Amino acid sequence: MWNVLLSFSGLVALIQLIFLPFFPESPPYLLLQKEDKAGCLKAMKQLWGEGNYHTEFDDLMKEKAVTKGTKIMNVLEVLREGSVHPQLCTMLLLLLSLQLCGLKIFETANLQESIIPYVSLGVSISELISIIFCSSIIDRFGRRVLLCGGYLLMALILVLLETSLLLSDQFIWLRYCSVILIFLFIIAYGLGP
User: Fold this and answer.
1) Is the sign of the CA dihedral 86, 87, 90, 93 positive or negative?
2) How far is 95 from 189, CA to CA, in rounded Å?
3) Of 21-35, 89-103, 130-144, which range is least confident?
4) Where do the Major facilitator superfamily (MFS) profile domain residues begin and end (predicted)?
C-alpha cells in the first residue's frame, strides 16, 4: 500500500496549499525583507492576538539595524560566492555519503524482501527522532557543540560500520548491526551537521 502512503503526503501538501494563503506572513520577513512596519504589526496581532508588541517590534528593529549593511543572497549568488565553497563541499559530501552508504549497507546486509519496508520505516523514524531531539537540545548546548559532537559521533559510527561490513561474512548478525549503525548515523547527522 505504498501508493496510499505516498498520496497521503500529497494530501497534506494540498491542505497546506489551500489554507496557507489565509495565514499572515512572518513578522520578521515583513519588517526585515519587505520593510513593511504596519504589515509587521498587523501580522503580530493576527498571529498572537491583541496586545502590545512594541518590545518584539523594537527587537526586530534592532536586528534590522544590525543587518542593514548585509546583502541577502539568492541560491545562485551563494553558489558563486567563493568564501562558502568549503562549507558547500562539506555539506554535499555529507549528503552524498549519507545517501550512498545506506544503499551499500542494505545491499551488503542481504536483507529479505519482507524486511526492507521495515528498514525504510526505521530510516524515517531515525530522521524523525533526530529532528525532535535536536530541536529540543539546540538551545541548551548551542550549534557548535552539536556540530562537533555530531561529526565525532558520525566518525565513530562510520568506523564501527566499516568494521561490521568487513566482518559481516564471518558473523551473519553483523549485517543487522550495520543497519542499526546506519540508523544511528542518520540520528547523529540530524543532531549535528
Assistant:
1) negative
2) 9
3) 89-103
4) 1-193
pLDDT digits (tens, 9 = 90+) for 42-80: 888 888 888 888 888 888 888 888 777 777 677 788 788
pTM (2 d.p.): 0.48
Q: At what angle do helices 143-166 and 116-141 cross, to 10 degrees?
A: 150
Pair 185, 154: CB distance under 8 Å: yes
Residue (of 158, 143, 156, 159) closest to 191 by Cα position: 143
What residue type is assigned to position 138 of the chain? I
Place of cell 549528503: 95
Which of 122-145 are b and which e, b meaning 16 or more Cβ less than 10 Å from the residue's Cβ?
Answer: bbeebeeebeeebeeeeeeeeeee
Cell of 88: 558547500
DSSP designation for 50? S
Taking the C-alpha atoms of residue 182 and residue 106, their distance in angstroms, rounded to an integer, is: 9
The domain locations on the chain are: 1-68, 75-191
Tell me what percent of the residues of the chain surpass a pLDDT of 90: 0
Please tell me the predicted confidence (pLDDT) of residue 6.
63
Distance CA 9, CA 120 (A): 16
CA distances from 61 to 26, 34, 49 (A): 15, 13, 21
